Amino acid sequence: MGRALIGGLLRGGWRSEQLSVAESQAAAREAVARDFGITATADNAAAVAGASIVVLAVKPQDAAAVLQPLAAALAAERRLLISVAAGVRIAALESWCGAGVPVMRAMPNRAARVGAAATGVYAPPAVGHGQRIAAERVLQAVGEVFWVRAEELLDVITAFSASGPAYFFLLAELMAEAGAELGLESAIAQRLAAATLYGSGLLARAGDCDLARLREEVTSVGGTTEAALRAFAAADLRATVRAALVAATQRGRELARQTLP
Fold first, then answer.
1. Contact 51/76 with Cβ under 8 angstroms?
2. Kind of pairing, strands 53-56 and 103-107?
3. Residue 238 and residue 234: Cα distance in Å, rounded?
4. Residue 237, φ and ψ in degrees, nearest 5
5. Which domains, ranges and CATH numbers included, belong to the chain?
6. What pLDDT, on the 0 to 100 scale, is given for residue 182?
7. Cross-strand partners of 106
8. Tens of pLDDT along 204-251?
9. Alpha-carbon torsion 127, 130, 131, 133, what sign?
10. What residues contact residue 133 under an 8 Å CB cut-off, 6+ apart?
11. Least enclosed by CB within 10 Å: which of 32, 67, 175, 213?
């Protein structure tokens, strides 16, 4: 996700000298510096020096170890911290950063790699309007931003859009398998599934996001699409999808509780 944000910011007009990255692994650090032409260091304190915005893009279990040594530097100039570490609560982040550091959370998805992310964002009242605008500008570099009114809704965002690409990929995968069973060459079935997934996404984004209307426009009375949709309904696809999102949301909340200080 860190690489996706760097790439998006540079494509969006940010200059390489405006960005600095801390990376503990030498090979990854060298790759970032080479691929993006930005400063990359093993020293976290050096990376945040002079920054007005700090993005925490680490594994959740590493967040405390990264932030606690930086608490004084973050507090000195009240630098805004944007965490994209999945499930790590604001309360935990604030406890590691120390008093007075404005902290907010963002949950992008994998489509950030191609500039088409759906990112859920939450900021507590302590984060000012100007800082929210600045954070939104950073996150919009990789796609669309959706603000939520309560932090716990980020668990739903995680289940919905952060995990969501896997659901669509699964459907496309199953369509390709069924197509192959019905006689298509496997490679052609997979390419057809991927192209159908891509084109459907473009149609959804190009319109007014009335997904029910888009579905109806493809569905002729007595036609093939209607037959397929009836099979989905008979299998209670609606209940299956809801159960999947509930399970993912609950799991996200379980993982979040593990990071509380």
1. no
2. unpaired
3. 10
4. -60, -35
5. 2-149 (3.40.50.720), 164-257 (1.10.3730.10)
6. 97
7. 121
8. 988 788 999 999 999 999 999 999 999 999 999 999 999 999 999 999
9. positive
10. none
11. 213
Q: For the chain, give the percent of residues with pLDDT over 70.
A: 99
pLDDT score of 209: 82
Burial letters 214-231, b for 16+ CB under 10 A, else e: beeeeeeeeeeeeeeeee
CA–CA dist 197, 191 (Å, integer): 10
**Strand pairing category for 143-147 and 117-122:** parallel
Strand-strand pairing, 117-122 and 103-107: antiparallel
Residue whose C-alpha is closest to residue 94's, from 120, 111, 119, 75: 75
Spell out the residues 6+ positions from residue 4 whose beta carbon is closer than 8 angstroms to its own.
Answer: 108, 112, 113, 117, 142
Q: Could you tell me the two tokens for 211?
A: 């997904």
Take residue 238 and report the two structure tokens written for it.
Answer: 């609606």
Give the span between the Cα atoms of 96 and 117, in whole angstroms. 28
pTM of this prediction?
0.90
- E-strand ranges in 34-164 read 39-41, 53-56, 80-83, 103-107, 117-122, 143-147
- Residue 69 contacts residue 238 (beta carbons within 8 Å): no
4 exposed, middle or buried (CB, 10 Å; 0-12, 13-18, 19+)? buried
Residue 56: which of 259, 29, 47 has the closest Cα? 47
Q: Are 5 and 141 in contact (CB under 8 A)?
A: yes
